[in-house]
Amino acid sequence: MEKNVQLELDNQLCFALYACAREVTKLYRPFLDELGITYTQYVTLLALWEKDEVSVKELGRRLYLDSGTLTPLLKKLEGMKLLRRERDPQDERSVVVRLTDEGRALKERAAAIPERVFCQTSLSPADITALREQLRRLTAEVHAGSCEPTDR
Known about the structure:
Layout: H1 13-35, H2 39-50, E1 54-55, H3 56-63, H4 67-79, E2 83-88, E3 91-99, H5 101-110, H6 113-118, H7 125-144
Antiparallel strand pairs: 1-3, 2-3
């Protein structure tokens, strides 16, 4: 029986990314627990701290989340009084997301999280920047479309 190395788990890009993402996300957990939020809630707040008063559609695009995932997440954050969802008066079909004072204040408490997480890795700031840029390029390429399979 011929061994197909392409189908070995350790040779899969998807598994390397999945395992790494899970482990990095675990590094965030104790800091996010202090704030009473999950990782997905954290990245949603990061996007809103960067640009407040955005449509649900725009926020979903920014986070790569569909409305079926984003709506319950926003509902939970609204229940925590960190944001408000309101119909856009210019377009009743659109819902705008706005941070509350509590949501904006949480940014101060979260400010040290990136540094606290990066201190737990052995990567230099330059390595982290290079890796982040490489992952952004990969995401953009995957998002842009596919190519024909090659002999890699």
